[in-house]
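The pair is set out directly below:
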Amino acid sequence: MSSTRSLPLQVVDSLKSAAAQMKTTKVLVGFDGFVDNILHVVKTRDSATKYTRVEKMTEFAEKIAEAAGLSANMEMVVQMRKLGGNGPIMANALGAYGSAITYIGNLGAPAINPVFAEFAEAATVHSIAEPGVTDAIEFDDGKLMFGKHETLREVNWANLTKHIPEKALLKIFSESQCIALVNWTMLTQMKGIFQKIATVIAPQLKGPKRILFFDLADPAKRSSEDIREVLRQIEKFEKYFRVILGLNLRESLQVGEVLGLRRIEEGHAAVTAHAVRLRELLNIDTVVVHPTHFAAAADVHGAMCVEGPFTPKPKITTGAGDHFNAGFCMGRILDLDLDQSLQLGVATSGYYVRNAKSPKVPDLIKFLKTL
């Protein structure tokens, strides 16, 4: 491949060459599931159908502060109701590439919730409980997510193996080139699931090491000891897998603090160096950190940083990180170089926030040509 071609065009060439491989790739994702209500806050209402929204989080915070000691009535308008949860969104994005997806999680029981109906037709789905619900209030500069998590307690090893016996679960893991285990923060029984995968499933896997991707998903509300313990668990998986830990900037700072690192500045070089240090301390294959405007990663061969196609007016932001994770993991599955994997990640996320849908490969190729 010519080094004179820009990085986005190099990825275009790689995607064209890997079209057949993507269609034969098998990926396992689990274990959460949410119904996402995407909401806007009404600032002023002009008519039954026309209103002006609150665009900035700071403005919303001011409205709340003004109501302290009094009361306030704030109207919210549902923009869309969609499948949610880190796992389903990431799996949906991977499936859009044409790969065969197996999903395990709480998508409805005994029947699949209608919001997951299309997803369940495109993927092989094993639902073990009712989904949670997230109300995601979106602003131009961020989002606030309010979750109802009671049903997530049913995501545990006993209930998992009740629906999928260990022998069948081993077969699913064996057939998957990549496994993504996400949303550790909200799934409070993941410690036990990780222990069982490490002791029951992983030692029986044959052949080359599979990719095992982890997304902690905003661990701020978990204790430092909990975070330290899950990092130890993740490190131990490296014996059986090529482990990737995916972090947004805030998560990377939280993990760094637990590991005793100083707080970093938010520039490209500092974040890239931070990814290198985290990977060294955790002793795993890859650490990837994706702030809003760019992404950086470190693996056993070195470190790279790639600028993202940032837009100040996204159609949707909930799920942007999950789309980045899907793109990056697909790059690793295809054995692309680290910089191409990062480019595929930021392009997949960039297309999604502009169009509020997961890109298919032709969409992605067209988008990459504009970068």
